[in-house]
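Fold these two proteins, one after the other.
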Amino acid sequence: MDDPESTYLSSAMTKVVAKELLKKTAIGWTSNNYTSECIDLFAFGPGSEQIAPFIKNYELFVVMTKALKLS
């Protein structure tokens, strides 16, 4: 993972695991850059009431793992 073109370790790790992760989870990235901008999030269905109008990303993780019965 020692990639001179990668500024962050997460960028180097993504290059290594992205293809396999995409095959297994259908999750991919268009960028490894992070901005602190707000994004729109829409939720519907059972448990969607757990999503507050404004939620931090780590709070969303908790809601999703509970909904998927992973915690």
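Now the second one:
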Amino acid sequence: MSQKKINMALTTLVEALGARVFVDTNLEECLIEQVFAGDRMSDLLGAVSERMLIITHLANQGMIRLVELMDASAICLLNGAPPCEALLEVAKETNTPLIVSPFGMYETCGIIYELFQGGGGSVP
């Protein structure tokens, strides 16, 4: 049995979350197939892949290094907390869209889950 593959435009997720965009490089072209939510660096490193949105509270030096190493499509920080200047710079340098959800982890993931379940993305 084949599984339905959804490509959700990052702009759709930004709109649904009411997220603030801090780095909009490649935002219009960015498609999301998977979402990973977590705060442990080892889990993030092991899970990251292309067309993945990383949802995390981490906005520290460790996250800066992770952005430099990974191939994720975009990063979403939580609770309306703006990213530090260093994270903004590395996101710009690596062309990684960086958004901030006004919600916590649970609410942000719930909204995104509902979007994916509703088939709000395009099917290739």
